[in-house]
Specification:
about 180 residues; about 75% helix; 7 helices
């Protein structure tokens, strides 16, 4: 089936459920720093163990994402961004295959750095800088990498058609597990 005909297929109930689950997960990720802030502002002096549990989710999420991308870079595996690009394009030209492999590595390093920044800002405790980073900074960095990469790709590969950002995100979300 070509990418064009896949776009014209009616949505399946599983697609709607995936969209709802992703929206719910994003809601939790956005709400998380706000909840931590409320806990800390209540005057509650959490123990070191509680602080570790409060600060662990952003670190764990970024490490999990880094590992998810990293395992696809093993010899004999298709890098995750290459797979998304192939699904969207139908075929992947050799120069784009090389580029998407490198881009997968860039995302691995990006997620690792995001985790390290979160850890560094949580020591000795998660206050304003940590909350700002995990509530806004991390998301801004993701958006900057997405948009920056898109601008670079259009300039680097003007000879190819490029899907819209929304189309790219839909492909990635619908084929994340595969």
């Amino acid at each position: 089936m070509s990418p064009r005909s896949a776009r014209n297929e009616p949505r399946r109930p599983a697609d709607a459920i995936n969209v709802l689950l992703i929206a719910f997960a994003i809601g939790l990720l956005v709400a998380y720093p706000v909840v931590v802030r409320q806990v800390l502002e209540q005057g509650y002096a959490p123990s070191t163990l509680v602080l570790a549990l409060l600060t662990m989710p952003p670190v764990a999420i970024n490490i999990a994402l880094a590992l998810r991308f990293l395992v696809t870079l093993r010899r004999g595996r298709e890098p995750i961004i290459s797979r998304f690009a192939r699904i969207e394009r139908g075929t992947l030209e050799p120069d784009l295959a090389s580029y998407t492999r490198t881009l997968t590595l860039v995302w691995v390093l990006f997620f690792a750095v995001m985790a390290l920044v979160s850890v560094a800002l949580s020591v000795p405790s998660p206050h304003a800088a940590w909350q700002l980073w995990n509530g806004i900074g991390n998301w801004l960095c993701v958006a900057l990498l997405l948009v920056g990469e898109r601008v670079y790709r259009h300039a680097r590969f003007p000879q190819y058609r490029h899907a819209s950002l929304m189309r790219q995100l839909r492909v990635a979300m619908s084929h994340w597990r595969g």
